[in-house]
Design brief:
Structural class: alpha/beta
Number of strands: 12
Distance between the termini: 22 Å
Number of helices: 13
CATH superfamily of the largest domain: ATPase, nucleotide binding domain
CATH topology of the largest domain: Nucleotidyltransferase, domain 5
CATH architecture of the largest domain: 2-Layer Sandwich
Strand order of the largest sheet: 3-2-1-4-5
Length: 364
């Protein structure tokens, strides 16, 4: 490895932190991981620590002796550009706060901050030539539920993902919440019996046929809210609530795979919500319109004829998140069927690679 070559850092900052170090051709040289670094949830200190841990890990796995450098108070090799895609980054203020943290590391003067959906799209929608800007649509269903689209000329739009109170349809905790609601309706006689009842009771270790215990368990997860706790305690209560409900998402998929009507209905409704969000984002960036025709254009008798056009092309489609990447893939299959205008979905396993592509292209 030649030390004079420029380095690029791409970082996924979601419920986990993944940093990848790459060369100018996009080759991944090293990767480091850490716990969550989401600024809006973890706060500045813990977010900064997680980012630094992942970055150090990336340099170390690339064969750079970070321990000796830091002990000697020497800086790490300079990075040509850093791009981080972080959950919850939507406003200029969010971008500024994250940039300020990264600037303290003194690694690069070129820092790009965007949201996590953007780097998922970049990782999954331009596999042929990473040096070219990506376009298409990305759907996330796991920690959150949203759609993000990027047009052929670079315009972007998102739909959904407005938090667990206002709408994160498709997220793991949303599926868990729908399962709990279905059980309570069944217990009241307002809904159909479902195999989810036994699965949820076993997962949460609550008494069978006790809807009061089920309801009490859910509300107890939010016990820290409204009790005068500090901001960190309140946020931890919110995350505890979301994590507990998210544990039920695989049960919904399992029950649906076994033909449970209630679970099937939950996934049908969820896929429709995600498809609606994806379609809305697609329209906002103009991907619902035919792509410009390719090939030679001829003028014959006042008419323009293009011999290279192929008609409406399928829209590149990337997916990410525990729900969409899970087996047996019940929601994934339904979502694909609900978006016939999109190409077969590309499952993104490492969104940080999309961040690297954005970092490299920022220098071109």
């Amino acid at each position: 490895m030649q030390e004079e070559q420029p380095y690029y850092l791409g970082i996924e900052a979601t419920g986990r932190t993944v940093a990848v170090l790459a060369g100018p051709d996009g080759e991944i040289l090293g990767e480091g991981t850490a716990t969550s670094s989401v600024y809006s949830v973890m706060g500045q200190e813990r977010s900064s620590q997680a980012l630094w841990t992942a970055i150090i890990g990336a340099f170390s796995s690339a064969g750079i002796n970070t321990r000796d450098l830091l002990r000697a108070n020497q800086t790490l090799p300079e990075v040509a550009a850093i791009c981080v895609g972080m959950t919850g980054v939507e406003r200029p203020k969010d971008e500024s706060n994250v940039k300020r943290m990264l600037n303290r590391f003194n690694l690069s003067k070129n820092i790009i901050v965007t949201n996590d959906a953007h780097i998922v799209l970049e990782a999954g929608c331009n596999l042929e030539d990473f040096a070219e800007p990506a376009y298409g649509v990305a759907v996330l269903a796991g920690e959150t539920g949203l759609a993000f689209a990027k047009g052929r000329t670079g315009q972007t739009a998102r739909a959904g993902g407005w938090g667990y109170l206002l709408g994160e349809e498709g997220s793991a905790h949303y599926l868990g919440q729908q399962a709990v609601k279905a059980l309570l309706r069944a217990a009241d006689g307002r809904g159909k019996p479902t195999a989810l009842a036994a699965l949820v009771e076993h997962e949460w270790k609550i008494p069978a046929n006790r809807p009061d215990s089920l309801s009490h368990h859910v509300y107890s997860l939010l016990a820290g809210l409204g009790t005068g706790g500090n901001k960190a305690q309140i946020e931890e209560s919110q995350e505890t609530y979301k994590r507990a409900l998210a544990q039920l998402a695989p049960l919904v998929e399992r029950a649906a795979a076994n033909g449970d009507e209630v679970a099937v209905a939950i996934l049908d409704e969820t896929s429709a919500q995600l498809a609606e969000a994806a379609s809305a984002a697609i329209v906002k960036v103009g991907l619902d319109q035919p792509a410009p025709a390719k090939g030679a254009t001829f003028q014959i008798g006042g008419m323009s004829l293009n011999l290279g056009g192929k008609g409406q092309e399928k829209i590149p489609f990337a997916i990410y998140g525990s729900v969409l990447l899970s087996n047996p893939g019940q929601l994934r299959t339904r979502l694909q069927e609900a978006l016939p205008q999109c190409d077969d979905p590309i499952a993104v396993l490492n969104p940080a690679e999309g961040a690297v592509r954005l970092a490299i292209r920022s220098q071109s």
